[in-house]
Amino acid sequence: MKKKLVLESGEVFHGKGFGADQDIEGEVVFNTGMTGYQELISDPSYCGQIVCMTYPLIGNYGINRDDYESIEPAIKGLIVKEVCDFPSNFRTQMDLDEFFQKRNLSGISGIDTRRLTRVLRNSGVVKGKIVAEDADENSIIESLKATDFPTDQVAQVSTKKAYASPGRGLKVVLVDYGSKSGILRELTQRDCDVTVVSQDTTAEEILLINPDGVMLSNGPGDPEDVKGSIEMIQNTLGKVPIFGICLGHQLIALASGAKTFKLKFGHRGGNHPVLDLKKNKVAITSQNHGYAVDQESLEKTDLEETHIALNDRTNEGLKHKIHPCFSVQYHPEASPGPEDANYLFDQFIEMMEEFKSKKVLN
């Protein structure tokens, strides 16, 4: 299938389609990871996006049953230089093309992904559409410019009904904004009794569960679109320890009076260096976000900056000065990516235990 990628900025890239034969459109972003494409494809934070992989060969170890981050992929499509037709790995169950066909996903290969990445770095992320080779480019460009993509991505990927992952340890409410299964895995490995709730759950409903702590998950889109959760966090702060990841981190900032802004081309990949300002130690982190916390807006809040990105000096971590609450912009559950930062889950456990012991003494 001869296909082409048309960007709203006017650039056109010609290639070959794989997966389902259909036209798709979305926000075009790039990811610098060398591995982890299965986790990426199944990461709900990519809802509505077409992802360009900068590494030239994708699919070389196939698709297996163990590396999913969600049951239903939310990604719109994938752009690669070369898709591997004959993967080699003892866990392989199918190749990337077969998986895309079964999941009704579409991709395009044969693209100069490094050139496309330079376009996105220079102009910022843009809307794009993968279409048949003979489609009219001018009408597609005009259509993309006039299109406003949905702002309800979190509602699309969040669980609709609360469910439990039982354990014998501390009781945690995980607010699902598009949570990766890696977060639940890290909590259950620490024997937490986890209740996963929808993104529109109120503070009253959460506190009725009587948790020892609240985890705010990652998720897609603009944090300012998730207005109900800002109020929920404000009414939960101080009553129970809170740990936020990625979108959860941004929502904590908004709930505390700070601001967020859209990055030019975002942070997406498994190789982003982050500096812990207190320990003066660098961790290589896995990241996937298009928005960041405005550092200047932190000055009039009760939040202090704990981490920064070394690539562009943007905010990567916060701690509340009064209440037991902290957050990071990157992904300590580490799928896909390194495991340098999964100690933060232990830090959350310690915070819950300390808060619980103080309640008992009081």
Automatic annotation (TrEMBL):
| Superkingdom | Bacteria
What residues make up the catalytic site? C246, H331, E333
PROSITE patterns this protein is in? GATASE_TYPE_1
Q: Which Pfam families match?
A: CPSase_sm_chain (PF00988), GATase (PF00117)
Quote the catalytic activity from the record: hydrogencarbonate + L-glutamine + 2 ATP + H2O = carbamoyl phosphate + L-glutamate + 2 ADP + phosphate + 2 H(+); L-glutamine + H2O = L-glutamate + NH4(+)
Instruction: Give the record's pathway.
Output: Amino-acid biosynthesis; L-arginine biosynthesis; carbamoyl phosphate from bicarbonate: step 1/1; Pyrimidine metabolism; UMP biosynthesis via de novo pathway; (S)-dihydroorotate from bicarbonate: step 1/3
SMART domains documented for this protein: CPSase_sm_chain
GO BP terms: namely: 'de novo' pyrimidine nucleobase biosynthetic process; 'de novo' UMP biosynthetic process; glutamine metabolic process; L-arginine biosynthetic process
Q: Which residues form the Carbamoyl-phosphate synthase small subunit N-terminal domain?
A: 1-131
Q: Which leading EC class covers this enzyme?
A: ligase
Q: Enumerate the PANTHER family for this protein.
A: CARBAMOYL-PHOSPHATE SYNTHASE SMALL CHAIN, MULTIFUNCTIONAL TRYPTOPHAN BIOSYNTHESIS PROTEIN-RELATED
| Role of this protein | Small subunit of the glutamine-dependent carbamoyl phosphate synthetase (CPSase). CPSase catalyzes the formation of carbamoyl phosphate from the ammonia moiety of glutamine, carbonate, and phosphate donated by ATP, constituting the first step of 2 biosynthetic pathways, one leading to arginine and/or urea and the other to pyrimidine nucleotides. The small subunit (glutamine amidotransferase) binds and cleaves glutamine to supply the large subunit with the substrate ammonia.
Q: How does it assemble?
A: Composed of two chains; the small (or glutamine) chain promotes the hydrolysis of glutamine to ammonia, which is used by the large (or ammonia) chain to synthesize carbamoyl phosphate. Tetramer of heterodimers (alpha,beta)4.
Q: What is this protein called?
A: Carbamoyl phosphate synthase small chain
Q: Which organism is it from?
A: Kaistella jeonii
- Source taxonomy lineage? Bacteria, Pseudomonadati, Bacteroidota, Flavobacteriia, Flavobacteriales
